[in-house]
Design a protein that fits this description.
Layout: H1 2-18, E1 28-33, E2 36-41, E3 47-53, E4 56-61, H2 68-97, H3 114-139
Antiparallel strand pairs: 1-2, 2-3, 3-4
Keywords: Signal
Amino acid sequence: MIYGATLMVLALASAAVADTTDNAGGRFTMSPVDGGFLRLDRQTGAVAMCARSGTTWACAPVEDHTPTAAAAEVSKLEQENKDLKDRVKALEETLETKTPLDGPPGGKMQLPTDQEVDQALDYLERVYKKVRDRMKDLDKPLPPPDAPPPPKGSL
């Protein structure tokens, strides 16, 4: 019964939040349940089960049986969310202060020297020659299947 009441409390809490425009002036929201009413205090969030006892009505607080691990996880996620928002804000500020021509983060962009350009072109030339030679090898006819294998060291 208490577990069901806890679920009802959560449902009432969400309904109370959605229903604030209808009963904006009242502090309490009463919702019928089996055996009485659930009373939600809109200011504190406290929930009480109100039931008839003889000729009088009495309200008893409903205990929250939410596992504390879930509360710790929510707290952890809230902190992680805050940290990520701070990080995004810092990155956005960094982007706003930079112009597209600022170059790399460490300083000004520097063009390569003539020697570095020559080294890069020499490397590309060697790669091109190797690829060209391999392509020529692929164009060579294959030996017949019954021929002896070529001697080692020859292509």
